[in-house]
Design a protein that fits this description.
The protein is α/β, with parallel strands linked by helices. It folds into 3 domains: about 120 residues, Elongation Factor Tu (Ef-tu), domain 3; about 120 residues, Rossmann fold, CATH 3.40.50.80; about 45 residues, no CATH class. Helix content is about 25%, strand content about 30%. A 6-stranded antiparallel beta barrel has the order 1-2-7-6-3-8. A 5-stranded parallel sheet has the order 11-10-9-12-13, with helices on both faces. Strands 4-5 form a two-stranded antiparallel ribbon. The chain is globular and about 50 Å long. The two termini are about 35 Å apart.
């Protein structure tokens, strides 16, 4: 895995199409993406800077170190995080697949997006980090992680035994056209905010072949707490053998309001946990999630 220099890009919509009732593909291009640099990692993600409702251009910050800042007096643009489904270097195009759901700022923009519309993108960051001698991998995700899972599978060497479990609301939400041959695929219906999720059960019951393996699980934040406890503490997998990433939080506005209502000392304690440079990040996450649970979050 390699880092890339932080840049902020102005990106224009080149095309938009619906893949399923819940998945809309937006291809972004234009001169502003001429120097876009991919990490090459299958689940790399970008921040999408969105224009205000009724506006044609988003307010874009300028890069500072590994982050960005806005000029004094300029309100930050709404932003959301999306994985890169495809990067076409020769064309200078970035493809993003948006999960459509009612009321979301990014989903609303994607539903209405047309050629020439503009968003901003920052430089990507990748998380998937399987070993070079990988023999098998297990990918389990709901709709939000489907684009990243498909890209990971397409970039995986043919000799690797790949098993993927997709949890979608129903059969009409399946997207099978881009699945590589030879992948063991299971479709589950549920989760995704419309029914209880079975992602934890899928991880617990999935076979784990011999040899070096990697477990990659994506979904709703509270669902994944149990998944992470299982792979880290019950299976005892080292951090190099798994990646469990929350892509969304159910009833996020309610959760954010409850977090904002915490007293300043508690919020400071939670933020400061991540500044302990002498501690294993996985141990920090253990403590952080335990503290959130104790707070009812």
């Amino acid at each position: 895995m390699r880092d890339v220099e932080m840049r902020i890009h102005r990106a224009e919509v080149m095309s938009a199409e619906d893949l399923t009732p819940s998945l809309r593909r937006i291809v972004l291009g234009g001169e502003g993406l001429a120097d876009f640099e991919s990490t090459g990692v299958g689940d790399e993600y970008v921040r999408v800077f969105l224009p205000d409702r009724g506006e044609s251009e988003p307010r874009l910050p300028f890069p500072v170190g590994r982050g960005w800042e806005y000029p004094d007096g300029v309100a930050p643009a709404e932003l959301r995080t999306y994985t890169v489904r495809r990067f076409h270097e020769q064309r200078g195009e970035v493809t993003l697949d948006f999960v459509l759901h009612g009321g979301g700022v990014a989903a609303t923009w994607a539903q209405e997006a047309k050629r020439g519309d503009v968003v901003g993108l920052n430089s990507p960051t990748g998380l998937y980090d399987a070993a070079d001698d990988l023999a098998w991998q297990l990918l389990v995700t709901d709709l939000t992680g489907m684009p990243a899972a498909l890209r990971i599978l397409q970039q995986t060497p043919e000799h690797v035994c790949s098993r993927v479990v997709f949890e979608v609301p129903g059969p009409e939400h399946r997207w099978e056209k881009e699945l590589p041959a030879g992948v063991d695929v299971t479709w589950m219906h549920g989760g995704n905010g419309v029914a209880p999720s079975r992602i934890e059960q899928a991880v617990r019951t999935a076979p784990r072949p011999d040899g070096p393996g990697y477990v990659w699980v994506v979904g709703e934040s509270r669902v994944l707490r149990a998944v992470r406890r299982y792979v880290r503490h019950e299976l005892g997998l080292p951090a190099s053998a798994y990646k469990v990433v929350a892509y969304w939080t159910e009833r996020a506005e309610e959760w954010n309001a409850r977090f904002a209502a915490l007293d300043d000392n508690t919020k400071s304690e939670l933020f400061e946990m991540w500044n302990a440079e002498d501690r294993d990040p996985e141990e920090i996450e253990d403590d952080y999630l335990e503290r959130l649970a104790a707070l009812g979050l």
